[in-house]
């Protein structure tokens, strides 16, 4: 997918000076469908099935033991509403259900929250609530808007926990690809003044108790991560589009957006679930080493001979869910 620089409309919208073509619904303005947003399970399947003929798109059919609460507005920017869907076990345990907030991928400029519906359903069947969220993509608002949106989603889940039978003290953030980077950064900078613009807004925290990184960038600044940004004659990489410029132009931003730079004592534990694609593992081993030196918990699960976006498909979704549930059982104390 070719990265595109944000349009003038996207820049103006990010500044609150313009609105895209849209439809009005219940006081919320929805952006018009973006024809460049082509990252979804069906298109990814068509690219991967030749090499992996045994795969199939993971089912999004809702089973009888899962309850769904759709289209919940979790944050508003003027008339622009961002929404999430909740997937809940039909029978909530006493004390509330732990919850995983799922952040979709798509190179920061594409993707849909429906990406994580199959995983959300399977988590709910295993006793975890799950929230799939939409957030502002790069064409609408660049870095750090998606990170701010993700923290807002965590705050919404915590604020509405009792209504939905959720335990507000057992929240995990998880994401795939670009969503993993966004989730990790949101989690590691939660409630930190200077990073979290809403940290002083009230008593509702955006802190989480665990992180699941599914094949996502942890360090934008490694040579491997920057290789696709430095090819002469090629347009800016998706990362450069989101971060507002190439590495040579925005070094401080590329460093600030890298989750590896926020390793510290007392940070949430992280599960890394990785494909066999080296590009998406860049920086992970160094981050694990830094975490170990600071007494933080890190686990790594690698799925051999897998493409990026493996979590969209069976047979790979199930081991992804199994690893996630095992990690969360251990670290959220179900």
Automatic annotation (TrEMBL):
**Which InterPro entries would you find in this protein's record?**
AB_hydrolase_fold (IPR029058), BD-FAE-like_dom (IPR049492), GDXG_lipolytic_enzyme (IPR050300)
GO MF assignments = hydrolase activity
Residues forming the BD-FAE-like domain are 84-274
Q: Span of the secretion signal?
A: 1-25
* Signal in keyword set: yes
Cite the entry's keywords alphabetically.
Hydrolase, Signal
For this entry, the protein name equals Alpha/beta hydrolase fold domain-containing protein
Protein source organism: Massilia niabensis
């Amino acid at each position: 997918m070719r990265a595109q620089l944000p349009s003038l409309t996207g820049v103006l919208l990010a500044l609150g000076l313009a609105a895209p073509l849209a439809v009005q619904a219940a006081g919320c303005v929805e952006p018009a469908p973006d024809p460049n947003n082509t990252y979804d399970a069906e298109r990814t399947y068509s690219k991967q099935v030749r090499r992996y003929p045994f795969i199939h798109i993971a089912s999004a059919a809702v089973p009888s033991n899962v309850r769904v609460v759709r289209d919940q507005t979790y944050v508003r920017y003027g008339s622009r509403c961002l929404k999430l869907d909740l997937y809940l076990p039909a029978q909530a345990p006493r004390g509330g259900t732990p919850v995983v907030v799922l952040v979709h991928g798509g190179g920061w400029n594409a993707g849909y929250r429906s990406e994580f519906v199959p995983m959300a359903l399977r988590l709910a069947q295993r006793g975890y609530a799950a929230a799939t969220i939409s957030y502002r993509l790069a064409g609408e608002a660049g870095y750090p808007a998606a990170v701010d949106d993700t923290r807002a989603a965590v705050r919404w889940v915590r604020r509405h926990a009792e209504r939905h039978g959720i335990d507000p003290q057992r929240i995990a953030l998880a994401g795939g690809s670009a969503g993993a980077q966004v989730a990790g950064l949101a989690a590691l900078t939660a409630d930190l003044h200077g990073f979290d613009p809403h940290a002083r807004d009230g008593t509702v925290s955006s802190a989480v108790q665990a992180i699941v990184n599914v094949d996502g960038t942890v360090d934008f600044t490694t040579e491997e991560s920057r290789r696709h940004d430095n090819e002469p004659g090629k347009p800016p990489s998706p990362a450069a589009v989101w971060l507002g410029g190439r590495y040579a132009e925005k070094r401080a931003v590329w460093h600030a957006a890298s989750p590896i730079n926020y390793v510290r004592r007392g940070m949430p534990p992280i599960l890394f679930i990785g494909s066999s694609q080296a590009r998406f593992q860049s920086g992970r081993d160094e981050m694990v080493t830094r975490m170990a030196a600071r007494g933080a918990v890190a686990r790594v699960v690698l799925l051999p001979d897998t493409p990026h976006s493996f979590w969209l498909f069976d047979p790979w979704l199930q081991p992804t869910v199994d690893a996630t549930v095992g990690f969360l059982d251990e670290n959220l104390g179900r």
